[in-house]
Structure formats: structure tokens, C-alpha cells
Design goal:
The chain is an alpha/beta fold. The protein has 9 helices and 22 strands.
Length: 346
């Protein structure tokens, strides 16, 4: 890149896969020639016009850095993330009806219910992105078009914009939201398809051998990098994150006269582990899935356990599943109070 000092430069031709041998890099793409600069973040340059904006240098955002110093952008280009080749994609199950939260889900899918002014799906994606996982496939079903509307309008709703009307119609985005470089595939997986069937339908979008799966309603202060390292260390086909459940009821301690000596509202069950719904799978897990009626949590996971191919990463930290309207209110109260344990981003 012109004007930079320090990092070595090289020129290569070909696609991204051919470039990964150079390690972490920034790329400038022009007419098939790519200039590679080693930096401390993995980012690439793509034409701003291709992202729906004007090819105007004042509309560019510079995210590439070397030693803490910004690398200068080229006119008309914007920086976006490229993940290393072996970074797992994240599959998020978003197709259910959410009948236990009918007050909200009558009008929108549960993953689009707002928590602190942002939909649940945004919070889940931010959790993964904090640990470098920014390639998402959303399995759509109930009101799937609403996810498409949300993400198609994301740039306009997340930035100040200038719109040039007329024949030279152009839209210019003035800021850069923190979600630069997120890759979101919206896959229609059927209205009544079960969880295993949805993963099977979305498998055509998986590129690597390892992928992550979760639901569109669970939040945790989970380090997904540690979970991935655990998964790779144990060498099994599947890893599930185990969490401590909260009791649905208040816990009472009674004395011999039936007086309540202590009361604890919905305590954690310290002797029990349950699935937190955060999975890491190897590609052969897809062979355990069998059609639209396949429920991931039943035969596939049960068979993986019988085959000795399922291990559990124990998470003693925060976990909360938003299944009911009351739980939705609690999550919003946490966010409003500034005490949202899952929020690890700025």
C-alpha cells in the first residue's frame, strides 16, 4: 500500500485461499492483482461502490492497522474482515415459531425480538464475533423474510447516509458500524422443518470441516475460542457446551414447624449439567442427520453419545435462554441496568 512503512510487501495473483500462506494480511484488489501487506488484523480492501456506496475517497473507512497505526486507504475502497481458512462458520437456528413467547413472536421471529434496542440475533452474532467468528448462516423458517429485510437494510439503518436522487442515483454511508466484514447467509430451511433438518438443509453453504451450531435465543459469557480449542484437543466429532440450569421455581428450606428458614428465587442447580445449545461439529456429523423430521437433540446427539463422539465443555459462567416473555423482560432489564453479563464488546 502506498505510504506505508515497515511491513514487507509482495504481489500475488489468485483467490483468497492462495493468499492465506502469507499469514495475516491486508489486501488491495485491482484487476486481479493483489498487493499483500502483513498486519496485525486480517482485513481486505473491496471497492466501496460494490457495497452500495459512492466510489468516493471521503466515504472510505480505514480499519487496517500496523503496530497500532492506521494504514492509508485507497480512494474508493473500504476495509472488511477476511477470516483464516480454518475458522469455523456459525450456523444459527432461527426458524421456530417461538410459541412460548407469543406476546412478541406473533409478529416476528423470536431471534428478532429486541433486547436493549437490538434483536437477539444481533447479540448472538456479536458474542461469536468477539472471538473472531464472523461467518454466519441463519436457518430461516417462520417469517424468514423479516431476517432478509433486517440485513438488507442494515447499512442504511446503522449509518448516517446521503442519497443522490435522479439518474446518477447513489447512496453514501458516512460511518462504519462495528459489524464491518460480517458475512451473513440467509438460508430458507422450511416452515416446519425440525432442527436437525435445518442444519442438513443449510449444509450446502458450509465450506470447512468444522462448524458451529447454536439457537437464536441463548446468550452466554462464553469464550468460543476456548471451546474450539477444547473441541480440537479431544478430537471427537461433536462438542456441546454444558451449563448449570436455573430452577424454574423458588427454593424453600423448611424447619420442623414448617417455617421457611430460607428462600432463594430460581437458584442454580449446582449438581446438574444441561445443554447450553452451543455446539461444535465436524462434517461427518451431517451423516447423522436424516431429513426434515430429524430433531438434532434426539437421535443424532443420542447416537453420537453412544458412539463416544460427543464431549462436553463445562461452562460455569452466565447463561440465559430467552424462552418466555418473562425471560425476555429480564434480559431487557439486565441490559438497561448496565449489567448484561454477555456483553463483552465495546
Amino acid at each position: 500500500m502506498a505510504g506505508t512503512s515497515g511491513p514487507q510487501k509482495c504481489e500475488v495473483s489468485g483467490d483468497r485461499a492462495a493468499l492465506r500462506e502469507h499469514g495475516t494480511f491486508c489486501t488491495q484488489r485491482r484487476t486481479g492483482v493483489v498487493g499483500v501487506v502483513v498486519v496485525n488484523r486480517v482485513l481486505s480492501w473491496t471497492p466501496l461502490a460494490a457495497r452500495g456506496g459512492c466510489a468516493d475517497p471521503t466515504g472510505c473507512v480505514n480499519l487496517c492497522r500496523q503496530g497500532g497505526r492506521p494504514l492509508p486507504p485507497l480512494p474508493g475502497w473500504i476495509a472488511i474482515d477476511i477470516m483464516p481458512a480454518d475458522t469455523p462458520q456459525v450456523v444459527i437456528l432461527c426458524g421456530g415459531l417461538g410459541t412460548r413467547m407469543r406476546e412478541e413472536t406473533e409478529f416476528r421471529p423470536k431471534p428478532l425480538v429486541d433486547v436493549g434496542g437490538r434483536p437477539l440475533i444481533w447479540h448472538i452474532m456479536k458474542l461469536y464475533a468477539q472471538h473472531g467468528f464472523t461467518d454466519f448462516t441463519l436457518c430461516l423458517g417462520y417469517r424468514g423474510y423479516m431476517f432478509k429485510e433486517y440485513f438488507l437494510n442494515y447499512e442504511a439503518m446503522s449509518n448516517d447516509i446521503t442519497i443522490h436522487l435522479g439518474r446518477e442515483h447513489c447512496i453514501k454511508y458516512h460511518e462504519a458500524h462495528p459489524e464491518q466484514g460480517f458475512r451473513v447467509t440467509l438460508a430458507e430451511t422450511g416452515l416446519n422443518t425440525m432442527t436437525g433438518g435445518r442444519v442438513q438443509r443449510a449444509a450446502k453453504y458450509l465450506r470447512g470441516d468444522t462448524f458451529m451450531v447454536t439457537y437464536g435465543d441463548g446468550l452466554a459469557d462464553l469464550d468460543f475460542g476456548r471451546v474450539l480449542a477444547f473441541h480440537r484437543k479431544h478430537g471427537r466429532l461433536a462438542t456441546v457446551t454444558a451449563v448449570r440450569p436455573s430452577s424454574r421455581f423458588g427454593n424453600l428450606e423448611l424447619d420442623e414447624a414448617s417455617r421457611v428458614s430460607s428462600f432463594m428465587e430460581k437458584p442454580r442447580e449446582v449438581d446438574t449439567w444441561v445443554s447450553g445449545g452451543f455446539f461444535i461439529f465436524e462434517r461427518p456429523v451431517l451423516d447423522y442427520l436424516d431429513g426434515d423430521e430429524c430433531v438434532l437433540e434426539r437421535e443424532p446427539l443420542e447416537q453420537l453419545a453412544r458412539d463416544g463422539q460427543l464431549v462436553a465443555f463445562r461452562h460455569d459462567g452466565f447463561f440465559y435462554a430467552c424462552d418466555t416473555y418473562r425471560e425476555y423482560q429480564i434480559l431487557n432489564d439486565m441490559w438497561t441496568s448496565g449489567a448484561a453479563p454477555w456483553k463483552s464488546w465495546e
